Amino acid sequence: MPIINNARKNIINQSLIKEGNLKALFSLIYHRQPISRSELSELTDLRPTTVSSLVDELIQGGLVISVGTGDTKNIGRKPIMLEINPSGAYFAAFRWCRNGLQYYLYDLRCNIVEHQTIPIDGAENFARTIYETILNNTFRKIKKQKLLAVCISIPAMIDNTNYALFSSAVGLKDNKNIIPELIELFPSLPIIIGNESIFFTYAEKECGCAKNTKNLFYVNISDGVGAGIILDGKLYKGSTGFAGEFGHTTIDLNGVECECGNHGCLENYLSLPSIVKNYSSRAESKGLPPVKSIDEVATAYSNNDPVASETIREVAHVLAFGLYNVITLLNIDIVIIGGGIQKFGIQFLDEVRKHLQPRAGINKMFERCSIAFSTLDNSGACLGAVRYFIDNIMTISIDLENNLYIY
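Now predict its structure.
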């Protein structure tokens, strides 16, 4: 019996070593394409024959393609260059927002193949809507075996211990049904689901203005206020996945009560609905009409309307106060501001920087921390979910251990 166990252990170890080498080569091709076999051998210290054999396996699996010859400094045959095959695999990605369900179909190189906004009638239909979209849209576009994962972004706190979802943006209060329903509908297809701010953060690190940044704070200011944190190059999620709830940090001990039960949460001062409410309150106190949308406030601000200027200056001041605490606590390299708050443009960003400058004089860590707007569009959260799956979860020669991944 021990001999059989040892034999099995050796087989498992060999399989894991092979998977590690395949994933390492795949990752290098993904990030450095086009690249040759000889370059892969130099970068990995694997023997050329081993690299050639493993690359052939990636090509046979449809994940990698040859794209002609490259230049060489040596005399002899030019190297054959390798790239990721865009049609080698696909990912169905969804982002839940107030105006419906944003659906994106991505290829293996994270190009958008298809995009659609789908109406959704309440949380009870969320999982079923995703399932029907994949049946009626995705599988009409690609073969079933080409779909590697379902990637879902939600503006919600997700408790990874009991699957509970909390979100004021889409009306979720301790919802424990959505994730089990997804598991039931997709028993054999990997599901990655997470807070949209976390996925936006990863997308910024891999595809946005924070490439090669090891310490990043991304704040998403829209209907709510969320954030994502990358420390030493890795996403920081906390013990139960709730890290990054920037909007529910306290800015005023005697402030207004938040939906979370706390008082003086940042979200009550920074979220777009709060900005509309605060502008309207100021306008009415001066005998002026209120506004109904954030676009009206943004237009007034761009036209130097005094009420809008006063409102947004306060927003910038409060945001700067919150960011000061984050930068001081985490020693971040870059802060990226995303979401609908970007409607207020570079003038708003300069206002935030201005409020941080007086504090920077007493704190050296501010000298190396830059503040910028996000360069990604609304698809950024879905892009981040797909890239995270490719980089950190996807396997090539062995089956995944789990079907569900929560972030």
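The chain has twelve helices and 17 strands.
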